[in-house]
Amino acid sequence: MRFLRDNARWLSAGGLLVFSSSFGQTYFIALYAGYFRETFALSHADWGAIYAAGTFASAAMMLVVGGLVDHVRIRDAALVVLACFAGVAVLVSQISAVWMLPILIFGLRFCGQGLMGHIGMVGTARWFAARRGRALSIVAMGFGLGEALLPVTFVAITALIGWRSSWLVASLLLLAMMPVVTWLLARERQPSGTADDTQTAGLGGQHWTRRMAVSHWLFWALVPGLLAQPVFGTAFFFQQVHMVEIKGWTLAAFAAAIPIYTAFNFAGLFAGGIAVDRLGATSLMPVYLLPMATGLVIIASTDSFAIGAVALGFLGVTQGLSAVILGALWPEVYGTRNLGAIRSVTSALMVFATALGPALTGYLIDAGVSYNLQLVGMAVYILCVAVLNAVAMARLRISVAA
Question: Is the alpha carbon torsion for 267, 273, 279, 285 positive or negative?
Fold first, then answer.
C-alpha cells in the first residue's frame, strides 16, 4: 500500500495512457466491423485486407518514430498523441468513402495500439527499477479496464445514438484525458521520464542499442513467441462478430462476458508482476502462453456460451502475463538507455502481427475453412513456440554462465 500511495501519480498516469490506447485496439475497432462492412459492402476478406493495410502502415511508422520517446518527456509525447488520436476519432465519425477507411484505420492503430501503449509502458519501465514488475502489472491494468468497460459501454452508446456519433464520444473522452495527464505528470518521477536520467544496464552490464539487440540471436529466437499472443488475441476479437454468429450467441452477450476475461487478465497481471520481481521475466517466457492455448481449444470445441465465457478467462490470464512479462523483459535483457528504440521494433512487430491475424482469418473464413479449426491451429502453434522459448532461455542461461 505504501508503494501505491507513494507512486500513485505516476502509476495512474501510466495506467491512463495504456487505457487510452483502447480506442485503437482491435477488440474496440472490431465492434464496428459490421457497420463498416455494411456501409461499404465489404466481404470478410475485404475488411481484413483493409484492416491489415492500415495496421501494416502503423507498424512501419512505429519503427520511424517509436525511438523518439527516448528523447522527450513522457508527458509531452502523450499530449501530442492524445490530440492526434482525438482528431482521428472525429474523422471516423464522418467517413464517407471506402478509400478513407485504411487511412483512418492507420490513424487509430498508430495512435492507439502503437504509440499510447508504447509511451505508457516505456515510461513506467524507466520510472521503476526494483519493483518494475509490480509497477508494470499495475499500469497494464489500463489495458484490462479498457477491455472490460469499453465494449459493453460503446455497444450501448451505439444503440442509443448510432455508430458515427459514438466515435465523437470517443474523441471527447480522449480530449478529456489531456488535462488529467498534464496534472499527473506535472512532476516527473526520479529517475525521470527521459532515457538520459536512467542507467539500468542489461545483459553483460551493457546498455544495448537497437542495432545490437536486433543483431543478437536471442531477439529473433523470441520473436515467434512474441507474436503469438498479438496475432491470435487480435484475430480472436477481430472475428468476434463471425464467431458469435456460428456459435449461436449474441454480440451483446459476448460483450457482457468480457469482464470475465478482464478479471483473469488482472489475476495474470498481479501474478506476473510478483513472479517477475522474484524470478525475472526470462524465467517465465516458456509458460506464459499456455493458458491461451487451453482457452482456444475449449472455445473451439463447444457451442455453450457458459463454457465459452469461462474459457475467455484462460485468454485473459495470458493477456495479463504477456503485458507485464514482455514489459519487463526488454529492460531486463537490454537495459533502459535505448529502451524506446528497442521497444519500437518489438511494438512494430506486434502491430504487424495484429494485421496478419485478421487478414489471414478473414481469408480462411471466405475460403470455407472452419473457424473452430483455425482456433485449434492457433493452439498448436502456441505449444510449439512455448518449446522454442524454453530452448532459448536454456541457451541464454548457459551463455550468461559462461
Answer: positive
